[in-house]
Amino acid sequence: MPVFDETGRAWELGPKIAAGGEGVVHQLLHAPEYCAKIYHSTPLSALKQAKLKALCGLPKELRGNLALPLSLIFSQRGGSQALGVILPFIQGHDIFELYNPQGRREHFQKADFAFLVAAARNLSIAFKVLHENGIVMGDVNEQNIKVRPDATLSLIDCDSFQIEHHGQRYTCNVGTPLWTPPELQGVSLSELERTPNHDAFGLAQLIFLLLFAGRYPFAGKPLNSEPLPPEAAIAKFAFAFDPTPKERLLEPPPAAPPFDSLPPSLRNLFLRAFRRGSELPSARPSPTEWITELQALGGSLTRCPSWPAHLHWKGSAACPWCGILQTARVELFPAPPGTPSNPEGAPASHGAWVDRLLALSFEPLQFGPPSAAMQTAAVNALELEVTSWMPGFLRRIPFVQRNINASHLNELKSRVSQANQTVGSFSNQASTLFLQHFAQAQPLLKSAHDTAGKLKSIGTPSSKAVAQVLARHQLRELQEHLERQLLHRAQVAGLGQSRRATLQSYQIITAWDVTEAALLALPGFGMTLTRKLLDWRKLHERDFQLSYRPPTAIQGNATFTAAVQKEADELVTNAKRLLSQINEVKSRYASSFATLQAAYHDAYAKWTALETRIKQLSAMM
């Protein structure tokens, strides 16, 4: 059905792409860069409508970090009762997919610890922009933040933010217990004035999750026999990683990164954010403080000598990621695509293909500066605008020249703002263009990396080992199947956000991690929920058994060797096809980017010409 914006323009609703407690989000047909949020409860109240109108009118400069509404929408042209808003469609993945190791492996394959530090810094910048403009996010949680492949991010669901407009405060009336600061636990949030210090609690939690491999700061092992779920721990200021014994009610979960693997200055910020006393006005670290310390951390990282993919703070006593690998057998930062390899067991003739496939990547192109000739032409064109319509002898009269310059200067100042916005829009266009082509390349890259993994695993065991090889094949296939089933998305009765946070902190993230021994070791998990989770795993195991097809039966060494060689040849054939397809996508992307870059060069040259001319005229006035 069509909806209509405030100017009367009609928009066709496309497919539903998200749903929540407040409404449903639809892509817009013929305008995929926008979406529409239709609220469940309509028509909207006068207060809600006024708040949305105020959000639509916030400065355009904020839209780089915030997915602010663009217009109210109505069921009919010229309507007065809004039913929703038009929003920019933000590309990217939920921040949960970045700090969760399984999601990072799927969506951010090249993300190392430096990438996580950069994302944390960009998140702090986004909160700084909010607070400097008198805005409070209020409902801070992992579902309101989208991260892009370059570690930049945007805050979404801005209609719940707390803002002030023309003396009227529009509050944020929603919240999530797992992200609510201690002083607001159990407090009604309706019409409650939120403060930047409340936001600072959620910001600190998100930064902690990014820097500590997805461990929640308030999920851990109780130091007494009483279970302490995360919401209760928050209310008691029970920071699990607090190094002071008298302050501790929890200890960190097993195989968590040590608290002292970060610099003392950063550790102090977390203590200020989570300890008792943080509820006092302005007590928690500000976004600016986080930006400073995260910038310093990014410049003081070193590579682990045992595994180059492991980056960590150079002052750490040991590599924290190697420690987790040794104790929990979990690799949080596997070698990214492109890391040189020396596959064991792969036929020598195919080993080079492993390196070649792992080296494949798809990186965003960057705009280069326009040529000097183009810049000069733009400046000359501006000069021609003045000289083409007035005889030279008039322009040489001083007072005439001054009047011309003054008039032209005013005109240029009005034009330079628009030119600046035009140049700025190319960054979003380039990002959208990259993400469109990256979406085409990503499944091909995954297939290429999977093919490399299969080539690496090829071997020629003796005939007596055939049964073991087949068993390992089935187990490996089962593991891959179960690792695709994320607990974060599981529909299990009694499994709320608090329980999910505890599971994640104990590295129980997928169905493969769900075992009776692992669940019984968790604090506060009774047999009822344990049984439900084990039944959930068994359900996916049954699905696997129904679909699993073992490889052809193997009879003796010669047959097995021939089968291995045939599989290797097929994998190389597939590798060649994938390489060709990826190159085709890269070629299309490069061609489209060249067109966009030409337009960018033209806009950039005109903008800098305007800036140059304004400086010249201002100096002459």
Write up this protein.
The chain is of the alpha+beta class. It has three domains: 1-89, Phosphorylase Kinase, domain 1 (2-Layer Sandwich), CATH 3.30.200.20; 91-336, Orthogonal Bundle (Transferase(Phosphotransferase), domain 1); 343-493 and 551-621, no CATH class. The chain is 49% helix and 10% strand. The strands form five sheets. Strands 1-2-3-4-6-5 form a six-stranded antiparallel beta barrel. Strands 7-8-9 form a three-stranded antiparallel β-sheet. A hairpin with a 4-residue loop joins β1 and β2. The protein starts with a strand and ends with a helix. The model is unreliable at 340-349, 460-467 and 554-559 (pLDDT under 50).
